[in-house]
Amino acid sequence: MNFKSHLDQFEVFAKVAQAAANLGVETYVVGGYVRDLILDREKKGPKDIDFTCVGSGIELAKEVAKQFDEHVPLSVFKNFGTAMLKLEDWELEFVGARKESYRADSRKPVVETGTLQEDLERRDFTINAMAIALNAGNFGELLDPFDGLKDISKKLIRTPLEPNITFSDDPLRMLRAVRFASQLNFDIDADTFYAISQNASRLEIISGERIIVELNKIIQVEKPSYGFKLLFASKILHQFFPEMVELQGVDSVDDKSHKDNFYHTLQVLDNVCQTSDDLYLRWAAILHDIAKPATKRFNKKVGWTFHGHEDKGARMVPGIFRRLKLPMDERMKYVQKLVKLHLRPIALVKDEVTDSALRRLLFEAGEDIDDLMKLCRADVTSKNNRKVKRYLENFDKVAQKLVEVEEKDQVRNFQPPISGEEIMETFGINPSKVIGEIKEEIKEAILEGKIHNNAAEARELMLEIAKSKGLEYQNYPPKS
């Protein structure tokens, strides 16, 4: 197979080839660019291209930079023997061919100069161990020493070397195997998958930061449930996410069983993926029932219950985020909020739902109300199609009622019309507990619909509340 016609379309390959000829070094395009070219996977945005040469990658990068008339930013990483050039539409990385060996207690390799064959065999999978030559004698020719092309045709993830060696050397490759299988909708070769299960505990030497990068890539595919099933079956998930593993299984007492919450969670995740690309809405789907194992109880009258799992789940979110090296910022709080509120809209599907209940949900969900409704819709996973249809139609009614209440009362993320400073100024008091009590009563009155969400009615109520508490105003100028 020859890709000369493809390479000829882009000036960058000709310039790299010329630079390589000037230095007299064999040079090849390797890795993901080759794989995606064969798979005809168009990449949006800048294209990342890896080049390997039998020589110094840094010197080659410097020579390539000279081929361009304009200044090209060059980054050199001497410790790794690599260099990078950034062009408008391309990010080019250069490295010399190398071979690697590993110590048992580390994933940091001992790197030595090697041949192209040795460079390709150290790569993770056969589909990533192909090269396209940029040399005058074989420009555009595909080199495929490990049958990566055949594995692409079979839709198979397989290691170039014996898989136990590949995964023992670099355990992160086990997660990458699942990630590529998920992204490409490929199977994992039987021997490769067995080696993953045998080496799962080796993940202990991998940092949480590197694990979460791969896990998030799995979560961001079109149907992430496939990847999670592979993680579970291989016991990889058990190494870093035991709370999710505990969701799996069904208990039965007196012929009463609950659903398998692991597979339910995966269905909710897939459902969310049909409506949103947001990574943290997907995390909310993963964690929405995370506390069910801890709250599971059996009642002879009603069967299995999980009372309070939404509140306990919300309390669990920060600890899980911290351990998995997920961001401890507004994104964590967003997930925590959705986990805590995910049952609330279900209680509002009745026709007689009050405006007060709708106002409270709008107030608590704020700008995340639309995402909350997406999560709630995704949470309907019954195999009874008529039941699913009925629930979704009820959610449509709730969504419409929420719109009507919001237009009328404007309580989504509303700020109290009366501030603590105004209360202190009006009654001539210092910061104290009573200020919070007055603000809370005003908020409750608005949510209950006793007063409208405006400053005039709120101030009038403030005076009534203050009077009942023995306060008299001292400085209350008229407000517009």
UniProtKB/TrEMBL annotation:
It comes from the Bacteria. Residues 262-347 form the HD domain. It comes from Algoriphagus halophytocola. Gene3D superfamilies: 1.10.246.80, Beta Polymerase, domain 2, cca-adding enzyme, domain 2. Residues 185-244 form the tRNA nucleotidyltransferase/poly(A) polymerase RNA and SrmB- binding domain. The lineage of its organism: Bacteria, Pseudomonadati, Bacteroidota, Cytophagia, Cytophagales. Keywords: ATP-binding, Magnesium, Metal-binding, Nucleotide-binding, Nucleotidyltransferase, RNA repair, RNA-binding, Transferase, tRNA processing. The keyword Metal-binding applies. The keyword Magnesium applies. NCBIfam families: HDIG. InterPro entries: HD/PDEase_dom, HD_domain, HDIG_dom, NT_sf, PolA_pol_head_dom, PolyA_RNA-bd, tRNA_CCA-adding_enzyme. PANTHER family: MULTIFUNCTIONAL CCA PROTEIN. This is CCA tRNA nucleotidyltransferase. Its cofactor is Mg(2+). Residues 27-158 form the Poly A polymerase head domain. Belongs to the tRNA nucleotidyltransferase/poly(A) polymerase family.
